[in-house]
């Protein structure tokens, strides 16, 4: 199956699927160029796969490339709202871009379905009835790693993240479910590529395990350098650093690493088996966690469109979203009062299958996890 | 009238007519896009004063752009949460009023420019380019770690700030406001270029010895130009943050400095309307190329390269001829 | 903090500095001889890393990968010089900044066009992996020691090339008086192409060497480029010796700052705040160093007075 793609010559937006007068218009803002493009491409491909499989002509999707720049994301959101008149926005990968777009989009009465980023502010005091995080709350996967560290009986982990809000949330999330002593707590520079100094600190600290959150290229660099350092402690992290695309670039250095995730390709759910097979068939590569979120988001959207038109009856559409009546690739899925998921969170281990490095589930870290900020949300 | 004067008049007419037409045709997004171009043009007008009049190649103007942006973000976020900025020794509250925010943005970025300029002007040439870059990076990393104001996540403002007598949420009204500010800044540039200060600055750029001989201090002249330049770019930063209802460290990044510089050179360095042409073309390219191919930045690069190699004096030079008028 | 840890961190700082030197040497050479600011130098670093990853993937040989990196970056450099850069020598720095800024866009997205959006795999060969034990009981990765050795060897080789060879004489002459060496019958445009290709090859080598322990991805060159600029400005633009000293200073400041500043703040702040504040200040440390050097010596440590 090839995904349809029509180029619109007079606008920056690429209109895909459903050319006829569609009832519902969806705007996808995601990162398709520059360093972070692989995440956005997976989000888009997962989302469009579900749209293609549903084969509907009443939903139109317009896609824009945010270049991972907040001001470009805002400009795209303005264009989609003002001139494309979309009803629903989705697709942003990064928290800082989400913070730039979501509050003002929901203030204008639009719906936003998050395929990835779900910063604490939007889960707590800044929650909004029109904002749904389909993925998780940012802290969740770090919490899972914390819970796992506790269950494994680690007593002295060394924890590390970049010095920016998501990094601070990450370490807070880990500590929330771990709760014991730490060998060390370090914030690195965002975009740092050399971790020799931190690895020396780890060696010196007497730690019994390592938890790190270093998304993208930072995680690749750290793992390669760590595996070559002679330090051999168990390593944990959130799924982002052990994603399908990243693992191939890390290679054997990642084998055995445990990571917190709410999805894995071997998750034993019928909808998941269908998704993995269809994704490989369509794109000739294994799906990543971002593709899974994109796919779930599209199916949630379609289930709500069946119930009501977002422009004509937003209340019914919102209620249908909240009901989450769709076959999630993650199995049981529901929304808590702050419109963030309640779901099981697992621990995966990096393994090698033939030539491919991938993940398999080894334990359930937390069952029916909601988010830490749900009580702060008043709506 | 020179060809450049005619071109400038046409440009002003276009700045008024095109967005008005788009507004009447019911295309608010075109107006938003034009607003973006006008605000970026204002940032470049600021840089053009340092670059075109003072000969100061600053690769750190994003610092002032960002200071202006954060002035807006900080004041508005405090107004939004009803938490005062400061209680002792005297009370300072946040505000959602544009004139107040602009004043703070101008003063804050002028101060930043004065400080950075005082230190940077000890160097010259490539060293000046690099030290301004270093100051920009310093502020960038500071903002990323500045947790109370969002750090790397940035600071969203839920509703655009207000201006007495206008509804700034209506795209065409906010556009008109920005356009007036841009035209005032252009007028200021034109007046300065002809003033004794401007002439002395021009001389300080070309033959500093002669300026010194008549008893003027070339470094002070340049510092004054740099400060003014930073203040204007800072004002545009406040407007840019208001356009996006958001401010984040990306406004302080070196790529932003590079982009502001691209706008000036694309249009024509030292030309009064160079920044306007540069910003309009850049925003249009940025917007339209994206729809053509996923790898549009390659073509943006090729176009920029062609301008440098084959259109010396920028686009205005291409249309109005090489010779720089005294504008 | 134990003396062993401090010694290890100093080694880490040295290794980082030596790698920065490979980048900075080409940059400062190109500026010294041709008076050109090349923002696209980071792109040549990326070209080297991608070429190495591609060849290592095909052949499995790390040495072939290094050769490929050198060759690819040198060829890319020579091509860029012939097609674009040589039209810029007579222009002011402003045009050079814009043109090479445009080259970054072309290189970055062009690489993504060819290799796709996903990071590539490039690993250390087996015979260089793992730690070795140094005197004093420091377990240190062998590959990083090799990096320090390789970088210092390149520095020495470059020094010899410039002080002892015919081309070195031409380079030094070119730095002093461009018109004169042309008048003496040296083919100046060929010399410029060679110097540019040499600088590019050094950047490509750095990209390949570092790519083996970092992430080979689009836009990997820009952060290093900025650091390399800081290095040559501190050292004095055009001076190879300055680039070496500057690179080591920056490498040590960055590494040691990241370690000691948070510890310093822990003396009078609570640990969580101290780590965050210390980390913020550490990321600004090299720029503060650069600002301080320039205020003290406006043309860098080894630069000719203006």
Automatic annotation (TrEMBL), chain A:
Ranges where the Leucine-binding protein domain occurs: 24-354
A GO biological-process term: amino acid transport
Keywords assigned by UniProt, alphabetized: Amino-acid transport, Signal, Transport
Signal peptide: 1-22
InterPro entries assigned to the protein according to its UniProt record, in alphabetical order: BCAA_transport, Leu-bd, Peripla_BP_I
Keyword Transport part of the UniProt annotation: yes
UniProt family annotation: Belongs to the leucine-binding protein family.
Name of this protein: Amino acid/amide ABC transporter substrate-binding protein (HAAT family)
Organism: Allosediminivita pacifica
Lineage of source species: Bacteria, Pseudomonadati, Pseudomonadota, Alphaproteobacteria, Rhodobacterales
UniProtKB/TrEMBL annotation, chain B:
GO cellular component: plasma membrane
Keywords: Cell membrane, Membrane, Transmembrane, Transmembrane helix
One of the record's GO molecular function terms: branched-chain amino acid transmembrane transporter activity
Membrane topology note: Multi-pass membrane protein
Keyword Cell membrane included in the entry's annotation: yes
Annotated transmembrane regions: 34-55, 62-80, 100-119, 126-149, 169-192, 260-285, 297-320
Compartments (UniProt record): Cell membrane
Domain of life according to the entry: Bacteria
Cited Pfam families: BPD_transp_2
UniProt keyword annotation of Electron transport present: no
Chief location: membrane
Annotated protein name in UniProt: Amino acid/amide ABC transporter membrane protein 2 (HAAT family)
UniProtKB/TrEMBL annotation, chain C:
Topological relation to the membrane, as annotated: Multi-pass membrane protein
Main location: membrane
Keyword terms of this UniProt record: Amino-acid transport, Cell membrane, Membrane, Transmembrane, Transmembrane helix, Transport
Transmembrane segments: 16-37, 44-60, 66-85, 97-122, 142-162, 191-213, 225-252, 273-296
GO molecular function annotation: transmembrane transporter activity
Alphabetical list of InterPro entries matching this protein: ABC_transp_permease, BCAA_transport_permease
GO terms (BP aspect): amino acid transport
Subcellular location: Cell membrane
CDD domains documented for this protein: TM_PBP1_LivH_like
Taxonomic superkingdom: Bacteria
Cellular-component GO terms for this entry: plasma membrane
Pfam families recorded: BPD_transp_2 (PF02653)
Family: Belongs to the binding-protein-dependent transport system permease family. LivHM subfamily.
PANTHER family the UniProt entry points to: ABC TRANSPORTER ATP-BINDING PROTEIN, BRANCHED-CHAIN AMINO ACID TRANSPORT SYSTEM PERMEASE PROTEIN LIVH
Protein's name in the database: Amino acid/amide ABC transporter membrane protein 1 (HAAT family)
Natural source organism: Allosediminivita pacifica
């Amino acid at each position: 199956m090839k995904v349809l793609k029509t180029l619109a010559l007079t606008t920056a937006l690429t209109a895909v699927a459903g050319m006829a007068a569609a009832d519902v218009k969806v705007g996808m803002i995601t990162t398709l160029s520059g360093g972070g493009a692989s995440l956005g491409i997976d989000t888009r491909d997962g989302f469009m796969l579900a749209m293609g499989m549903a084969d509907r002509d009443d939903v139109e999707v317009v896609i824009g490339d945010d270049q991972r720049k907040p001001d470009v994301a805002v400009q795209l959101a303005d264009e989609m709202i003002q001139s494309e008149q979309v009803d629903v926005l989705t697709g942003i990968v990064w928290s800082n871009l989400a913070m730039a777009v979501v509050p003002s989009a929901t203030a204008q009465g639009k719906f936003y379905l998050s395929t990835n980023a779900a910063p604490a502010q939007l889960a707590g005091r800044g929650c909004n009835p029109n904002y749904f995080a389909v993925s998780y709350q940012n802290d969740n996967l770090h919490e899972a790693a914390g819970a796992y560290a506790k269950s494994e009986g680690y007593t002295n982990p060394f924890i590390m993240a970049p010095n920016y809000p998501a990094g601070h949330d990450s370490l807070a999330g880990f500590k929330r479910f771990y709760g014991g002593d730490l060998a060390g707590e370090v914030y690195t520079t965002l975009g740092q590529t050399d971790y020799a100094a931190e690895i020396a600190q780890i060696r010196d600290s007497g730690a019994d395990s390592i938890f790190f959150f270093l998304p993208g290229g930072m995680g690749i660099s750290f793992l390669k350098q760590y595996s070559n350092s002679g330090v051999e402690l168990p390593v944990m992290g959130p799924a982002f650093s052990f994603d399908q695309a990243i693992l191939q670039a890390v290679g054997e250095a990642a084998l055995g690493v445990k990571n917190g995730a709410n999805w894995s390709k071997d998750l034993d759910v019928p909808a998941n088996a269908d998704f993995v097979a269809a994704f490989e068939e369509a794109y000739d590569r294994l799906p990543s966690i971002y593709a899974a979120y994109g796919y779930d988001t599209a199916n949630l959207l379609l289930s709500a469109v069946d119930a009501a038109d977002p422009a004509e009856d937003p209340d019914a559409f919102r209620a249908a979203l909240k009901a989450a009546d769709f076959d999630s690739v993650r199995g049981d899925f529901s929304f808590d009062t702050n419109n963030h998921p309640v779901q099981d969170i697992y621990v995966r281990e990096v393994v090698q299958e033939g030539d491919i490095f991938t993940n398999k589930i080894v334990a359930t870290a937390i069952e029916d996890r909601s988010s830490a900020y749900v009580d702060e949300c008043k709506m | 009238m020179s060809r450049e004067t005619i071109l400038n008049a046409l440009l002003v007419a276009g700045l008024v007519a095109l967005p008005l037409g788009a507004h009447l045709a019911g295309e608010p997004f075109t107006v938003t896009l034009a607003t973006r171009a006008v605000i970026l043009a204002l940032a470049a007008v600021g840089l053009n004063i340092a670059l075109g009049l003072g000969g100061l190649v600053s690769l750190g103007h994003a610092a002032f752009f960002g200071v202006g942006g954060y002035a807006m973000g900080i004041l508005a976020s405090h107004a939004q949460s009803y938490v005062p900025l400061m209680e002792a020794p005297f009370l300072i509250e946040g505000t959602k009023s544009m004139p107040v925010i602009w004043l703070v943005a101008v003063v804050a970025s002028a101060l930043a420019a004065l400080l950075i300029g005082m230190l940077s002007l000890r160097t010259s040439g490539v060293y000046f380019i690099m030290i301004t870059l270093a100051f920009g990076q310093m502020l960038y990393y500071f903002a990323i770690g500045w947790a109370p104001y969002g750090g790397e996540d940035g600071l969203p403002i839920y509703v655009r700030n207000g201006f007495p007598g206008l509804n700034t949420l209506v795209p065409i009204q906010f556009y008109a406001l920005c356009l007036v500010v841009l035209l005032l800044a252009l007028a200021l540039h034109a007046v300065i270029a002809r003033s004794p200060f401007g002439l002395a600055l021009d001389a300080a750029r070309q033959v500093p010895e002669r300026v010194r001989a008549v008893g003027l201090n070339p470094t002070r002249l340049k510092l004054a130009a740099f400060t003014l330049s930073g203040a204007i770019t800072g004002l545009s930063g406040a407007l840019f943050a208001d356009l996006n209802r958001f401010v984040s460290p990306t406004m302080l990044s070196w790529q932003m400095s590079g982009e502001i510089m691209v706008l000036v050179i694309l249009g024509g360095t030292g030309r009064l309307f160079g920044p306007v042409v540069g910003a309009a073309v850049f925003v249009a390219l940025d917007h339209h190329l994206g729809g053509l191919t996923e790898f549009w930045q390659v073509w943006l690069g090729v176009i920029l390269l062609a301008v440098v190699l084959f259109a010396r004096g920028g686009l205005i030079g291409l249309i109005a001829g090489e010779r720089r008028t005294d504008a | 903090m134990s003396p062993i840890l401090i010694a290890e961190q100093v080694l880490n700082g040295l290794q980082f500095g030596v790698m920065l030197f490979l980048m900075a040497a080409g940059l400062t050479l190109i500026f010294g001889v041709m008076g050109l600011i090349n923002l696209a130098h980071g792109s040549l670093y990326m070209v080297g890393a991608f070429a190495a990853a591609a060849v290592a993937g095909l052949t499995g040989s790390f040495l072939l990968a290094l050769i490929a990196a050198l060759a690819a970056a040198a060829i890319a450099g020579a091509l860029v010089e012939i097609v674009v850069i040589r039209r810029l020598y007579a222009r002011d720095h402003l045009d050079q900044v814009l043109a090479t800024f445009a080259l970054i866009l072309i290189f970055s997205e062009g690489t993504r066009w060819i290799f796709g959006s996903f990071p590539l795999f490039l690993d250390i060969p087996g015979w260089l992996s793992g730690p070795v034990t140094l005197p004093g009981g420091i377990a240190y990765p062998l590959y990083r020691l090799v990096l320090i050795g390789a970088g210092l060897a390149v520095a020495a080789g470059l020094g010899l090339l410039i002080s002892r060879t015919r081309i070195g004489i031409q380079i030094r002459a070119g730095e002093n008086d461009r018109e004169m060496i042309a008048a003496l019958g040296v083919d100046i445009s060929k010399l410029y192409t060679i110097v540019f290709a040499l600088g590019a090859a050094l950047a490509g080598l750095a990209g390949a060497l570092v790519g083996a322990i970092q992430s080979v991805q689009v836009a990997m060159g820009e952060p290093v480029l900025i650091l390399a600029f800081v290095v040559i400005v501190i050292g004095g633009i055009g001076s190879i010796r300055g680039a070496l000293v500057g690179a080591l200073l920056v490498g040590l400041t960055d590494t040691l700052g990241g370690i000691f500043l948070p510890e310093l703040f822990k003396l009078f702040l609570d640990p969580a705040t101290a780590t965050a504040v210390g980390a913020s200040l550490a990321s600004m440390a090299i720029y503060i160093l650069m600002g301080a050097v320039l205020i003290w010596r406006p043309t860098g440590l080894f630069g000719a007075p203006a």
